[in-house]
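User: Hey, my collaborator sent me this sequence without any context and asked if I could get a structure. I don't really work with proteins. Can you help?
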Amino acid sequence: MKRLRRPSRLSIDPYLVLLLGTVGLAALFPARGTAADVSSGASTAAIALLFFLYGARLSTREALDGLRHWRLHLTVLACTFLIFPALGLAARGLVPVVLTHPLYQGLLFLTLVPSTVQSSIAFTSIARGNVPAAICAGSFSSLVGIVATPLLAAALLGSGGGGFSGDSLVQIALQLLAPFLAGQVLRHWIGGFVARHKKVLGYVDRGSILLVVYTAFSEGMVQGVWHRVSPARLGGLLVVEAVLLAVMLLLTWYGAKALHFGREDRITIQFAGSKKSLASGLPMASVLFGAHASLAVLPLMLFHQMQLMVCAVIARRRAQDPLPERDRPVDPDPRYGRLPGDNVPS
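Assistant: No problem. I've predicted the 3D structure and written it out in structure-token form, which is a compact way to encode the shape of the chain:
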């Protein structure tokens, strides 16, 4: 295995700077009237394009091959869609002392979105974990999240989610699930093109997210939602999210150890099971929350940067860990996936 180069210094994600700049642009020059209608229509089209590209990229063969790591994938899904939401519900006791109700709604929504794909893979690779499993785990989480996140939002947020209703499920199906399935169907013909132009289409992804952020925060500015948030409340939100991230990092690491996963699989579970996807969460929030989406996505944006900074430090430390024999899985049953000693692409 090649020695992976360690990051020279922890830095702020440049894309987060663009996101914050977009928020500032929406605060200074929010879209109003006809401009708001155009922005909303463009945002809807961008979301559909975004999930179409997701469907075109996901290899069905890779997904089927990854099913042999079913225990790992079930563990990640349980962390993402069971444990995270349970902790989000527990945070209800912090209202109204620490969090306002709108901020709590955003925090709860944060716990319902899928796991990340790119950053989970990157950190797993740096930490010398099970990279193929990380690819499949992130893909499975995104796929399940298209259905699970709206259903969980319907059950846990209800009509108090800022405009969320049963009609939102139909909107999710039309704006997210239908384009995703169309991408899967057309993948046989356009999959090669998407793979060859991955970098260029990545800009389309990010541009779509920026447009969604601008539209959501413009609506929030017009509605005056930011007047309900104080610096003290934002500080309280940061503390709550730091605790949430710490709890999930500890649960995924030591919980995976209790389930007799090897070191490489434990790394994958920790990074894939403790993260939340900004790319998936923002479009869903714009559909589910409408004009209230700006406050709903604020906790997710803050958590996104926090998880990147913390996991970068953890990945560097994991890369320096020795690989003792006692860290091998207790049960070498091939149904549980490969052993840590097997070859892994570096």
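In plain terms: The mean pLDDT is 79. You can pass these tokens on to your collaborator as they are.
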